[in-house]
Amino acid sequence: MIKITRETRKNPERQPPPNSIVFSYTPRKSEEDARAYMAARLRQAGIEDVEGAAEPHETKVDARCAQDLNLYIRQEVIDELLVHCAEMAADQLEALGFLVGDICRWNGERFSVVYDVVTGQLDATATSVRFREDAFESMFDELDELEYDYVLIGWYHSHPGYTSFMSHIDLDTQMRMFNQPFHVALVADPVTMELKAFRPIDDTCIEIPYAVVET
Ligand SMILES: [Zn+2]
């Protein structure tokens, strides 16, 4: 049984949310903007077209949308996870990683900032739960090696070529492994260029807004 240890913070630091927003995503409004943004970031990293669509083996869970912004992601994190997802897509593989950062509070509201990723280095041949558990286990070892205090904010994975959504397997993974109210799942499709963020609230899957920041 894997245990997430530093998953929460008793006294979140009091500070205003980052104001250096370079891209912000609103569910069901920003799809086009996100495609352009992701393509630009990948181009910056020397990646033009991402191919390697895999067969979808996941079925979609209906999601509702939330409007309140409380998730901020450093642009370096976006770059790293997009490149990871694009490289894995070339071999028709799913990319998987942790999102680490901090929880802060301001005006009575909590928000998360993702400032780093820890990536899974295993070879995944399919979207299997077994692969995920092995990958998570090796990533927990890597988390132990981080030399700074962090909060595990959530995880990301890719759906190469079959769009960004939460599947039943994803939701099950989220419920078992990431059960704090702030834990988030980012799902990236580097082929169709989609990046969405989800959090289950009670039994409902909610797609949430996020902002990319420069820090
Ligand atoms: Zn998935």
Secondary structure: elements and pairs:
Elements: E1 13-14, E2 21-25, H1 31-44, E3 63-65, E4 71-74, H2 75-90, E5 96-106, E6 109-119, H3 129-145, E7 151-158, H4 168-177, E8 184-189, E9 194-201, E10 204-208, E11 210-213
Parallel strand pairs: 1-5, 3-10, 4-6, 4-11, 7-8
Antiparallel strand pairs: 2-11, 5-6, 5-7, 8-9, 9-10
The protein binds zinc ion (ZN).
Residues 58, 157, 159, 167, 170, 187 line the site of zinc ion (ZN).
Main attributes of the structure:
about 220 residues, alpha/beta, Cytidine Deaminase, domain 2, 11-stranded mixed β-sheet, 4 helices, about 30% strand, globular, disordered N terminus, binds zinc ion
